[in-house]
Amino acid sequence: MTPEGLTKLIPMPYRDVQARLRTALTTVILDEYSLLETVQVPITASERVIGHQLAWRLRSEYSRAWDVDMEYNPLGHAAEPGGAGEPVDISIHHRGMRGHEHNRTVIRFRTRLHDEFERELADLQAVKDRYDYEHACLLDLRLNMGSKPDDPPVLVAPQWVWLPGQEKMEDIFTRQAARQLAVDGWEARQRRYRGFDDQDIVYDGWRQRTPEEQAAAQG
Length: 219
Fold this sequence. Notes:
- The protein is of the alpha+beta class.
- It has one domain.
- Helix content is 35%, strand content 16%.
- It has helices spanning 3-6, 14-31, 47-59, 117-131, 175-192, 211-218, and strands at 67-70, 90-93, 103-110, 135-140, 143-145, 154-156, 159-163, 170-171.
- The strands form two sheets. The protein has a six-stranded mixed β-sheet with strand order 1-2-3-4-7-8, sandwiched between helices. A two-stranded antiparallel sheet has the order 5-6.
- Helix 4 links the parallel strand 3 (103-110) and strand 4 (135-140).
- Helix 2 crosses helix 3 (47-59).
- The longest helix is centred in the N-terminal third of the chain and has 18 residues, at 14-31.
- The chain is elongated, with a radius of gyration of 20 Å.
């Protein structure tokens, strides 16, 4: 397809973009749950690693007319942190082309946003404005350690905010659906590690034991 043909691509409805990202995120949680596991949530696998898996899944959600890149820097050189030229996590775009018909969506991805919402949102807005992205999303997985005996090691409660038009984070899944995703991902993780050396070994994960579980193990 020529550059002239690319300019004729029609805008993608906001809800369609959301649905594609939701599908890709669901697949990451189910298939790559081991990347979310940790003793303490702040030391999960790096956001680059998890973001790579998300970008890979997003690639199958779009036609080959679109490029899906992680930390793509349109400036072509190192940018100052916190500025509009700072590389963002995932771009769905046509490389090297300007205008929102070529820059569909930019996604800033975090595993745990903490108190950085205002700064992250301002940075995302700056990137969106500078490169004229059609849509921009700040996505937070909101990872937390499972605390109950029947919890998986890590729970997810993902939220997002979209620009333009939103100012606060919204849940991507219901609380029950998010918990079930974590449970299903955890169970798939255990099944993957069964059968080593002809033994039916079940990987128990890294979840810290509750005081009740510790007492039962010692008693």
